[in-house]
Amino acid sequence: MQCVNMPKNSKKTANPVPEHLKASCFKPGHTGNPNGRPKGSFSFENLIRNQLLKIRKEGGGKTRAQEVVESVIDAAIGGDMRAADMLMDRIDGKVASKIDFGDSALKMLTKLPESELKRIDSEIIDVDVIEDSSDVIDGD
């Protein structure tokens, strides 16, 4: 339970705590778990990391992580689009989502006075897009 100590002159009453429960409330600046999680306690993340870093004798001396990466790459080469997407997301980052405001943005703009529209238009920066062909790999 978190107690909210409101000043007496405050007009807000944010869930006042009954008197008999105030003694069990956390005091300001204190936590209910001062020492945090005990060292050596179970961590799913650490368990996975440790398993992925193990070197497998039957895997040609590769770690499990290397085997996983190779299998994902093989799956992508084999046509598995989910594997290909996952690889591209890890290499280039996820593609930004397009947000469609529908007609609401247009309706909002049509309600603005012309002077405000001109101000907004003057703040929009026009950018010329120049295609960089240095990234293109020529098949010849």
Keywords, separated by commas or semicolons:
140 residues; mainly alpha; 5 helices
Write the layout of secondary structure elements.
Layout: H1 44-53, H2 64-77, H3 81-92, H4 104-110, H5 114-123
Helix pairs in contact: 2-3
Account of the protein in words:
It is a single chain. The chain has helices spanning 44-53, 64-77, 81-92, 104-110, 114-123. The protein has 140 residues and is an all-alpha fold. Helix content is 38%, strand content 0%. The protein is built from five helices and no strands. The mean pLDDT is 75. The longest helix is centred in the middle third of the chain and has 14 residues, at 64-77. The chain has a domain at 44-92.
Number of helices: 5
- What is the typical, i.e. mean, pLDDT? 75
Could you give a short account of the major beta sheet?
A: none
Count of DSSP strands: 0
Tell me the Rg in angstroms.
Answer: 29 Å
Concise summary:
With 140 residues, the chain is mainly α. The protein has five helices and no strands.
